[in-house]
Amino acid sequence: MKSNLSINFGQFWALALIVAFAVGMRCWGTSYGLPFSYWADEYHEVMRALELGAGGFNFDRTSKGGFYLFLFLEYGLYYVFLKSVNVVSTTREFAELFVTDPSAFYLMGRVTAALIGSATVLGVYCSARVAFSNLASSFAALLLAVNVLHIDLSRRIGVDVPMAMLATWTLYYAIRIARAGRSFDYVAAAVLGALAATTKITGILLVMPLFLAHVYAMRVAGGGVRQAATSPRLWWAVLLFAAVLIATNPGIVSASGYLTLFIEAPVDLAELGSDEAHGETDHRMPPSLYVFYLASLAESMGWPLFVVALISVIYAAWKRTPTDVLLLSYALVNYLAIAGTSSNVLYYPRYLLPIVVSLSILSGRALADAVQVLGRHQRVALVALLAACIAMPLGHAIASARVLTRTDIRTIAKAWIEANIPAGSKILVEGGKIAADRATVPLRDKAESVRKRIEYWSRVEPRQATLLKLQLATHRGGGYDLELLDHEAVESLDDYAEKGVKYFVVRPDYFMGARRANAASARFLRELRSDRRVSMIKRFPADERSRLGPTVEIYRLSLTDGEAL
Prior knowledge:
mainly alpha
């Protein structure tokens, strides 16, 4: 069966406006936080791209990849440009530029993510058009274009949006396979599906709709189960899928990551999804992940569209066209996987993106079919419903974008500290191996502290020392003697006092109520608040409606009896 994707002048401009709107919404706020990045996933992807540029390849990080290849290409072109205009002359200088001010590197990645997110909107349009109708495709694209979760994640560097884009276009070719079963569609679906699995391990769930599409294609050709299982097209597609997957993610050959699809290494607050990006919230385990993800869907869509989406699922289950079955199966297998197998620490709304894509297409079809069967007066009510479906998430997305354009609380706290606490003072702040944690105030070490860290990490883990050497080479003076607090090894206030710590920078909500917080963290915060030697000298309260960032409190310890608090 031949598919027809030709569109007239009016349809072209409608699509162009929707895609342009999607690009604009996703690019709005991409400069948030720079030159600091408060989203930890961004740092991992950027550093992996730079590592590849330096000739290294991380064979261990097999559950996430793909997007860093885009970044690697962009950074390579950026290096060539800077070298051609004599800004840098060596790769060493290029690396030092990143350490000095990484804004351009992050901004390139974020804009790329925004364009990839917009390409997902186009993929939804094409999928709905080839499966249903012109009107359904416009509705579906518009519904995804205003989705709060998709917009928010499309503003940052991460693997979820690229994976959703590749999955969307894989579904497009799966729909074409189910309708006609042409060889090119098999090839395209296999390549795109493999790239989706490379980008994020959960892309492997695409095998479900792909196999169902093949079964439908065999039915169209008059074949049965035996013909479907022995089809050369199927096995060539399987081999191509495996070849592309291994070529783009060779670490999977010896990795066991595919045996535990949704189990990842623990991450910190900065890696959380869109709801957590607005500040510190209660991150304890929800009563049910099944309920949590449904609530997250409703939040990203707005309740009018969420109701429409639920109706569209029932409608699709009743219609049971090949496309309905493909989309429902893909949404269902993702929902069961994330709600049934996520660990009790790792549950994020971002896992919903594949489901959001499927529901956008099904909702667009349901609304379009309603337009066709309703009378004139009922259509007026339907238009009002569509306006409500768009208005609620759009209003939320605009408000979120406006907040992203304002200075983060942690950046404000950093400026206050540098203006009011003498350089070189010993300050305790949450941190990792070599620097302050990306979820807290981005304080810098003084040069002497960096030298000490280089000496230590050169013996323990030379890879960490490499970055520290770049930091030392570009050090411009100032900074503090940072005592990095690890929540898994919190000491007492007296222990830190013996080390000479005089100032403490903490995020109280995280110390008390976050998922990774422990009893020692809460006990230490109570010590700070109750010890007579300690006084709070500044507090920056969280207010997600006006700006992003958690509550930050700064304490000062009196080290001697004669020293004033």
